[in-house]
Q: What sequence folds into this?
């Protein structure tokens, strides 16, 4: 069962929008046992889209489109698919009613242009959109399946899960089972050296490491006839890998690092408070993205100025002058200060130079100090990150979480 | 001059890797006046790649490949291009020498497999890779230009800038000029209705609206013979659009909403402090992503628990009990409290239910109250957002910034 994704949108062709939909669809279709063999992007251009459809129907069994279902005249995906398949466009009364309700519930007036979105190719059926006004469309024409989805990810993703996945599940004879081992504290080449002998002997399950921001993951993928066989193969490979990965693997159940850290804080009856300077609240916001964090998260402070570090975290003025705001001593003082004023057992302090200005030869842009205190024991690390302001801040948060994970394992 | 990008790699087709190279190449080629009409991704699969090359040479003038230049047997891009163009593979002595130096400088031994990377199609020439072992390749065959680039972004990007951009610059007779109008406080269909009459009459410059998270942008693109003519056309279209867009447009200079907000706070001699509950530091972190924000940003508090709202922001206990932690009254009290304790003229308070638990019929998941105080004048809004925990938090921050922008315009 060969799959193809056709993305319609000028904003992707000119590089304005990063194509995250196609990644999401590829991953989801692969997990449903469909081999995605082609991804194609074309503009809002009838002739080129028509050619892309003709090519796709010759070579693929499932063609998933995204984008071009909006209300304006340059949204032309469904009209062009109808043309390629020799269908007419018909008004779908149920979809129109859904749309009226959508606007009524939001106390907004429906624009006349929205009516266009209630039309569908005559041989297709609508897929409900609970998060917007553009319904999706499913067409089976001969042996080929056409699925048309809206462009905005928050409309596309729920629609895929609720309406499309059940259709695709019935199509494929193969089941793809995978497990991702998430590692921290080891680089990709060291890892390849360590488990290369296992990777080499196994083509199915396939073992592939890949680098993520500040960490490395390993994906194990098995293609099998049944779900049970897939699970069995994944477990066998896990047993082979884990003796090597154990010191680095924080999850193989698709949990985020912050989920694992929050879980550990809970299990070890700790509480946490966080003080951030250059990261400006990013670490707190990642930790607070974990549901139920309220039991362990005490407080966060964004102390961007020197004065606020002194006022709120009680960092001694003399220390700031002597060591500088970006120093391991101040990072530790921030961690200890925030833990104390928040009555938390764990404190984290981040201070650094995210740039583009503010660097010196001794303390360059990208230098970040991260301090920790856990049950009265304090420590700090200094990192030198490359990249722009955003990158440096993202790395800082990633390494703060990684170090926190290591420290929590030890208590 | 029609451009096409062909990306070779299984990791993209299974959704493991986000395709950032194609975005980078699209943007860069567009800026050089090449109309990127197609983006294609195929796997490490000779037959499919061959077909993609055949299709591309029929319809495109410049074909840029990425990936598949590595040392292993499944890297086959250049061999397949050679086959399609009826060329043989020849050893490039200069490239081999470069590669030997690369390893020597890094005190590493060159693996025998790397030798493969020093071969090129007979009609092509090598493009130097200063950051890795895979040289790029440039082939002109008839009127078609083939450019083969390595997959890793840190090798691809410098090679594009140094070696490829100078080639492409000489090819295009057209210049593409564009301007993006960033809007807040208006939906896509209302916008289409408002400026539809201008969009309809103009094909070049082309005017295209597109939705972003919680906002809408308009892109105006002009294709002209000279840069000057492009600029002139963009200015003329701006003059046509601005009477309609003025109430909603916060930037047409590619500035982010937070940049504009920070700039306004500076210009109006204000200072800001932020208290966040459900967003957990996200608003602070977006504002702090603006360089030089230290002049106006006083403090941030992440007060996730009820207790910390009372302790740090002096939200009255009785108010919390009477109105509940998620209420406009508490959002205002948070805003006023954080402004007061931080000695800031502007305070923002966000409190809401990001889910997945904690919702009630009266206060459902997705309900978020955002309070503001500016120079002693306070107000609040309640929003009901759809989506998962992360989405609800992202929307909250977007709407907080949008509202802040509107309030700042009024003072």
A:
């Amino acid at each position: 069962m060969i799959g193809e994704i056709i993305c319609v949108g000028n904003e992707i062709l000119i590089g304005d929008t990063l194509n995250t939909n196609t990644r999401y669809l590829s991953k989801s279709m692969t997990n449903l046992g469909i081999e995605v063999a082609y991804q194609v992007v074309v503009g809002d251009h009838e002739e080129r889209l028509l050619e892309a459809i003709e090519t796709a129907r010759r070579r693929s069994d499932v063609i998933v489109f995204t984008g071009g279902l909006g209300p304006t005249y340059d949204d032309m995906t469904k009209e062009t698919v109808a043309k390629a398949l020799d269908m007419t466009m018909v008004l779908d009364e149920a979809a129109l009613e859904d749309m009226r309700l959508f606007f009524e519930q939001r106390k907004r007036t429906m624009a006349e242009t929205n009516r266009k979105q209630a039309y569908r190719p005559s041989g297709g059926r609508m897929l409900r959109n609970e998060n917007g006004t553009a319904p999706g469309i499913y067409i089976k024409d001969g042996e080929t399946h056409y699925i048309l989805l809206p462009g905005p990810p928050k409309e596309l993703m729920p629609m895929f899960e609720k309406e499309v996945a059940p259709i695709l599940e019935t199509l494929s004879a193969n089941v793809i089972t995978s497990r991702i081992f998430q590692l921290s504290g080891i680089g990709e080449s060291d890892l390849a050296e360590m488990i290369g002998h296992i990777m080499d002997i196994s083509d199915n399950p396939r073992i592939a490491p890949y680098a993520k921001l500040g960490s490395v993951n390993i994906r194990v993928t098995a293609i099998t006839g049944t779900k049970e066989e897939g699970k069995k193969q994944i477990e066998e490979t896990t047993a082979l890998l884990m003796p090597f990965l154990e010191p680095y693997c924080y999850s193989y159940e698709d949990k985020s690092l912050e989920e694992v850290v929050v879980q550990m804080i809970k299990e070890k009856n700790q509480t946490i408070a966080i003080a951030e300077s250059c990261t400006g609240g990013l670490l707190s916001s990642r930790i607070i993205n974990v549901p139920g964090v309220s039991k362990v998260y005490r407080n966060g402070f964004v102390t961007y100025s020197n004065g606020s570090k002194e006022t709120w975290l009680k960092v001694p003025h003399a220390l700031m002058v002597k060591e500088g705001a970006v120093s391991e001593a101040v990072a530790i003082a921030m961690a200890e200060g925030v833990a104390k004023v928040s009555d938390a057992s764990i404190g984290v302090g981040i201070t650094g130079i995210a740039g583009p200005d503010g660097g010196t030869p001794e303390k360059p842009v990208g230098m970040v100090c991260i301090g920790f205190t856990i049950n009265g024991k304090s420590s700090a690390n200094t990192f030198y990150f490359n990249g722009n302001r955003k990158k440096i801040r993202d790395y800082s948060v990633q390494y703060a979480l990684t170090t926190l994970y290591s420290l929590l394992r030890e208590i």
Summary: The CA atoms of residues 251 and 286 of chain B lie 17 Å apart. The longest helix of chain B spans residues 389-410. Chain B touches chain A through 88 residues (CB under 8 Å). DSSP finds 14 helices and 17 strands in chain B.
